[in-house]
Structures are given as structure tokens and as C-alpha cells.
Specification:
Length: 323
């Protein structure tokens, strides 16, 4: 599969300007590469996990509308029942539903919003500039129907700013700015992500409290070739703790993190060390401020949600933290 490019994270209001920039909505869903072959359709996560079985309606629609030899880049989303807001939790239930997965799929239909095409009829298009790839994608999308959608794109920066200001009510995370004269995969300065909140994916490999009632999450990132503790969340609400408990399992390998951390780390006080309960590593999304010292966050981070579609082994240190 072709690599999925990362994007630089800019501060809100920092949309780049110029004739070579186009703007798209940043959806709150699963980044997906869809590949069509003579044997069928496969849907890959951005880290190469096969998600086809969890998105059968999307795979079926692609098989109906797109011949073999294509690779599409886009976002799978789920709308709330009234269609007014994106529902990421409903999408995540495709991982936790177990034998009820068919019912979840029927109740919460997924949509595949496509914003790029990386192969056409077996020919690699990644070296063509975005302007050309977009023209190919628009031609391909003629006649599409739900659950396939073409992601809207504009070269009007004022319209993009309006999107940024008005679309959060619908669950849109922000705006992506992309250079029309760049090939794929895009470099750091070719795709710019402007979000309403700064968030990153980290790995939870320990908690405070018990696995059936976690109090805080201890999170890590790969540093120097190892998964190292970089932060601690604030106390979880009762509702968050109850939901998270279903994702907490005893680790299959011996934990490599310490059994405790100093009580004053990411907090105040000089009491007894804080005991850590190891869990099978999984990915969570957290909000963090800019207080990063090169090895850890100086302040507690805020837990946002699990990212069950991502594999812990594939999480990397974000470019914004390289220094």
C-alpha cells in the first residue's frame, strides 16, 4: 500500500494563502485507503490494518462503482441519526459490538468521503500533482451515491475560513490546506492541518486504579526506540472510567514500565509513590498543551477518546514534538 502522509499542525487562523493552495474539510472519522483488485475490495487503516469486515457497506459500494486497479484515500465517518453531527463513538462501536456488529452497522451507516486517488486502472498516480489527481477523482465520482461521497474542495480561502468557523457544530475538526502543485505523498509543508483542538495519538500501557475502574491513564510515545512514559491524564469522570474499563486488559507480555511513579510527577504533592496497573497497550487520543520538554509533557493531558482502529505498534512521535 502507498504511504499515508502526515500533515503539519498549524494554529487556528493560520491557513496558508496563495494560488497553489486548496482547502478541504477535516472530518472526524477513520482515515482509510480503499484498494480495488480483481479479487475484491480491501479497506486499510492509515497504519495498514484491514478494516474491510467492519465496513461491509462501504466495501460493497466501492465494488459496485469502482473497477479493479484503483486506490482511493479518504475518511470513513458516521452521521448522527438526524444527520446534523458526526458521531465518532458510533463508528468506534464497530470494534466493541462483538456479535452485535451487524445490528450496529444497520443502525449507524458509514459514509466514505474520498479526497484523493492514488491509482487509476492499475496506473500509479502518486507522482501527479494534486490538481491533476483531483480532476481524475471528480471524473471518477460522477454518478456516486451514498455511502460514497466526494469531499468538497475550494481554492477560496475566505470560504475555507467560513468552514473553519461554522462547521464545528457538525463535528468537523477543522480544515486541511493542500498544495495543488505537489505530488503524493505530501511533505510536511504541502499539507497543513488547522484544527479546533490540538490532539495527538498516544499509547496507554498503564493506569492508576483498577482495570475495572481506572482513575487516570498513563500514556507513552516511542522515544529512543522504546515506549516511554510521557504523560498522565487528569482524573477520569465516572462515565469515562466505566466506558474505558471494557478496553482494559491484562498485558500479554511482561510490562516494561515501572511499578510506580513519583506522586509529584504531573501533579502536586510529595506523598507516597503512585502505583501503576499495567494494561495491554492501546491507542488513545489526548489533548495536550505546548509544554513539552523533549521527553514528556510537563502538565497533565486530557483524555478525549480511544482510537481502537489504530495499532499501538504503529504510533510514532508526532513531528510537532521533534526537538
Amino acid at each position: 500500500m502507498p504511504p499515508v502522509p502526515a500533515a503539519a499542525l498549524a494554529a487556528p487562523g493560520m491557513l496558508p494563502a496563495g494560488r497553489q493552495w486548496a482547502y478541504e474539510l477535516k472530518y472526524d472519522g477513520w482515515r482509510i485507503l480503499a484498494e480495488t483488485t480483481d479479487t475484491g475490495v480491501t479497506l486499510w487503516s492509515r497504519h495498514g490494518t484491514d478494516l474491510t469486515a467492519r465496513l461491509p457497506e462501504v466495501a460493497a459500494a466501492i465494488a459496485d462503482h469502482i473497477p479493479p486497479g484503483f486506490i482511493l484515500d479518504g475518511e470513513v465517518i458516521v452521521w448522527s441519526p438526524d444527520g446534523g453531527r458526526l458521531d465518532f463513538e458510533a463508528l468506534q462501536r464497530r470494534f466493541t459490538a462483538g456479535r452485535h456488529l451487524p445490528q450496529v452497522i444497520r443502525d449507524h451507516h458509514a459514509t466514505f468521503v474520498v479526497f484523493d486517488v492514488l491509482a487509476v486502472a492499475g496506473h500509479d498516480t502518486t507522482q501527479r500533482v494534486l490538481r491533476d489527481r483531483r480532476a481524475l477523482l471528480e471524473a471518477l465520482a460522477e454518478g456516486w451515491a451514498a455511502p460514497l461521497e466526494l469531499s468538497p474542495q475550494t481554492t477560496d480561502r475566505l470560504l475555507a475560513e467560513k468552514w473553519f468557523q461554522t462547521m464545528p457544530a457538525a463535528g468537523i475538526e477543522g480544515v486541511m490546506a493542500k498544495r495543488l502543485d505537489e505530488a503524493y505523498p505530501a511533505g510536511r509543508r504541502a499539507w497543513v492541518k488547522v484544527k479546533h483542538r490540538d490532539s495527538i495519538d498516544v499509547i496507554c500501557a498503564a493506569i492508576t486504579g483498577n482495570r475495572d475502574r481506572p482513575r487516570e491513564l498513563i500514556v507513552g510515545l516511542p522515544l529512543d526506540g522504546q515506549l516511554r512514559i510521557v504523560g498522565r491524564t487528569g482524573p477520569l469522570s465516572a462515565a469515562m472510567s466505566k466506558k474505558l474499563a471494557a478496553n482494559l486488559h491484562e498485558p500479554t507480555d511482561a510490562p516494561t514500565w515501572p511499578e510506580s511513579i513519583p506522586s509529584g510527577q504531573w501533579g502536586s504533592g510529595r506523598g507516597e509513590p503512585v502505583h501503576l496497573t499495567p494494561v495491554e497497550p492501546f491507542v488513545v487520543e489526548v489533548a495536550a498543551d505546548t509544554a513539552w520538554d523533549g521527553r514528556r509533557f510537563r502538565h497533565t493531558v486530557r483524555y478525549l477518546r480511544p482510537r481502537l482502529e489504530l495499532a499501538a505498534d504503529d504510533v510514532e512521535l508526532p513531528e510537532t514534538l521533534h526537538r
